[in-house]
């Protein structure tokens, strides 16, 4: 993945992955108009937003919580969300059905279940696959705490 040609990467993102990238691009433009901080990360752009949520990967446009108090979480989230970028490359318009919707439900509807049963957020297939892709594509290694309750904590 590290040697994947950039022109081909962007060509596929803006054709096969067009619906996801258009959605992300509109969000990115809105955030730019609001003056939110951005940075380049590999072949993607991260926008830091003032929300209480974690992250969102929409093609080459990634959105992360600004000033998250847990710096390890921010490091891991960059890699993880970048992994979703590569899922768009593979799945294109099917991304929303195969990854987006299941991931959203897992994140927002099963938080209590995961906490009660000490289940890692990253055990569910969209998240596990995103971690794998993000690490392989960036060459960076995520540092996930052994205690699932600390994976996404604010401390």
Please characterize this protein's 3D structure.
With 155 residues, the protein is of the alpha+beta class. 52% of the residues lie in helices and 12% in strands. Helix 3 (71-91) crosses helix 6 (125-138). The model has no long low-confidence stretch (mean pLDDT 93).
List the helices and strands and how they pair.
Layout: H1 6-13, H2 18-34, E1 38-41, E2 44-49, E3 55-58, E4 61-65, H3 71-91, H4 95-109, H5 111-116, H6 125-138
Parallel strand pairs: 2-4
Antiparallel strand pairs: 1-2, 3-4
Helix pairs in contact: 3-6
Number of domains: 1
**Succession of helices and strands:** HHEEEEHHHH
Number of strands: 4
Beta-strand content estimate: 5-15%
The low-confidence runs, each spanning 5 or more residues with pLDDT under 50, are none
Task: Report the structural category.
Answer: alpha+beta
Strands of the largest sheet, in order across it? 1-2-4-3
Q: How far is the first residue's CA from the last residue's CA?
A: 33 Å
Please count the helical segments. 6
* Rounded average pLDDT: 93
Key terms:
single chain; 4 strands; alpha+beta; 4-stranded mixed sheet; 155 residues
């Amino acid at each position: 993945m590290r040697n994947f040609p950039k022109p081909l990467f962007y060509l596929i993102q803006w054709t096969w992955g067009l619906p996801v990238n258009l959605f992300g691009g509109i969000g990115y433009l809105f955030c730019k108009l609001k003056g939110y901080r951005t940075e380049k990360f590999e072949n993607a752009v991260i926008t830091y937003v003032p929300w209480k949520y974690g992250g969102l990967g929409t093609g080459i446009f990634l959105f992360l919580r600004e000033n998250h108090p847990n710096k390890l979480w921010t490091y891991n989230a960059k890699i993880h969300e970048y992994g979703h970028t590569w899922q768009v490359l593979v799945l294109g318009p099917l991304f929303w059905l195969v990854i987006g919707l299941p991931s959203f439900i897992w994140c927002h509807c099963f938080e209590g279940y995961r906490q009660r049963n000490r289940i890692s957020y990253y055990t569910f297939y969209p998240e596990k696959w995103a971690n794998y892709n993000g690490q392989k594509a960036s060459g960076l290694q995520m540092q996930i705490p052994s205690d699932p309750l600390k994976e996404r904590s604010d401390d």
